[in-house]
Amino acid sequence: MINSSPSKQPRFSGWLTLAGAMLAYGGICGDVTYAYGVFLPSMNETFGWHRLVLSGPYTLFLIIGGLLGPLVGWTIARFGARKNIILGNIFAALGLLGMSQVGEIWHVYLFFGVMGGLALALAEFLAVTTVINHWFIRRRSLALGFLFASGGVGGFFLPPLIISLISDLGWRWAWVCLAGIHLLLTVILAGCLIRNTPESEGQVPDGEALESPFENFHSSTKNSVYSTPIDWSASNAMRTPALWILLILFSVLLFVTNMLTTHQVAYLRDLQYSPMVSATALGLMLGMSILGRLLSGVLGMRFDGRYLAAVFFGCMGLGIVSLMNAQGIFFVYLYSILTGIGFGGMIVLLPNVMGAYFGRTHFSRIVGWTTPVVTLASAISPTLAGYYYDVTGGYFMPFTIAAALLFGCVILAFLARPPVLPVAIK
Predict the structure, then answer these.
(1) Is the predicted pLDDT of residue 216 greater than 70, yes or no?
(2) What domain count does the chain have?
(3) Does any domain span residue 204?
(4) Which structural domain, as residue segments, surrounds residue 246?
(5) In which band, very low, low, confident or very high, does the pLDDT at 223 lie, cut at 50, 70 and 90?
(6) Nearest CA among 320, 287, 255 for reference residue 153
(7) Does 211 map to a domain?
(8) Cα–Cα distance between 24 and 190 in angstroms, integer?
(9) pLDDT per position as a tens digit, 299-352
(10) Would the pTM of this model clear 0.85, i.e. be above it?
(11) Domain annotation covers residue 23
């Protein structure tokens, strides 16, 4: 039995676990997810492959990362997230190393699409958010803010670093360097810090005894931030309109982000911006997402997530409009700032609302079963943008679609009300 007396409780390990999760998430974002688009122009120049062809491996990467969600959700519930994170990032490091040796397009599909996709499924969003959802309840929003800020840090520093490595060493050695960085940060250091649950360490969430669920519910209601009084099962959660609205919002968020991370550098290069400016714009967008993530983490403890979502999606929509008119450097940086803040805010807000609406016990299963839906809806955007580029010679149509979807989500966000509790507990 866990002793709830503060003087006799073990030292709270949640913050060290958060630090490990930040290393794992920041590493896979910076070294894998956000890196591919930076390498795309150099690999295009070397092999002469069309951008539609080079977009294919990234689409496969996203599809594998999402379609394995139900299986990964089960393995997390069965074996714990820590093992998934370590194994997945080993796959990532091997895939990055393999990318340094590619000579045919199927090599890219294997090393980035397949091996990177396995890493994405096992070690990224589902695994790290499950860890945080177990360790934090009252401070969940803040902890998720710090967690996802690490992805912004990786995205801010890695694109300019990759450009420097490509300039100094060539793109093949740049992949080798990324593999070494990834192994150190996400496998060795993160693996030493992460613990699966507070209960496995003889501790409780947030490092303090909790009120009963119903007391927590009433307390949250007074603060205008909803928190479920029960842990929903996956089957019950999937019957609620709230879950499907959240999935639509998440799908649009990733649809737009996947398109930008794959094609934004190439788009700005087409507008005659230098390689460093093009990569720095991506880095600034992801760097500004740090501000959005931290803002979302703090504001999410005080304000209804639906209203915050409307603001963040509005920022992203305005950012895309600015990118479409990026004939001057001012509009490039305005895009980076607005889109970064909006994306950063939403990437924290959505899992926080999922945890607040449906609880922590079955979180990995709920998210695992719904991940394929989000993936299939969002993974087509890199290929769609590549197709329109090859056909029309530009990105006007895919960017217009992205902006329209984002502004539509501003309206939809208001409908994402907390789910109605099952009749059995009313």
Answers:
(1) no
(2) 1
(3) no
(4) 14-197+217-420
(5) low
(6) 287
(7) no
(8) 6
(9) 888 888 889 999 999 999 999 999 998 888 888 889 999 999 999 899 888 888
(10) no
(11) yes
Give the tens place of pLDDT for each residue, 5-49: 444 556 888 899 999 999 999 999 888 988 888 888 888 888 888
Q: What is the CATH number of the domain that holds 177?
A: 1.20.1250.20
- 232-266, pLDDT tens digit by residue? 888 888 889 999 999 999 999 989 988 887 788 88
- In 3D space, the residue among 274, 232, 251 whose CA is nearest the CA of residue 421 turns out to be 232
Residue 183 lies in a domain: yes
Report the C-alpha gap between 112 and 22 in whole angstroms: 22
